[in-house]
Amino acid sequence: MSSKNTLLVVDQLKKHYTTPRKWLSKSRPPIQAVDGVSFSVARGETLSLVGESGCGKTTTAKSVMRLVEPTSGSVKLEGEELLSLDNEQMRLRRRDLQIIFQDPYASLNPRLSAGDIVAEPLKNFGLGSSAERKERVQWLFSKVGLRPEATKKYPHEFSGGQRQRLGIARALALNPKLIVCDEPVSALDVSVQAQVVNLLMDLQEEFGIAYLFVAHDLAVVRHISHRVAVMYLGHIVEVADRETLFSAPRHPYTEILLSAVPVPNPRTPAKRILLQGDPPSPANPPSGCRFHTRCPLAQPICKEQQPALTARTLDDDDSLPRREHWVACHFR
Question: Which of 90, 91, 259, 325 could make an S-S bridge to 240, C-beta 3.0–4.6 Å?
Answer without folding.
Answer: 325
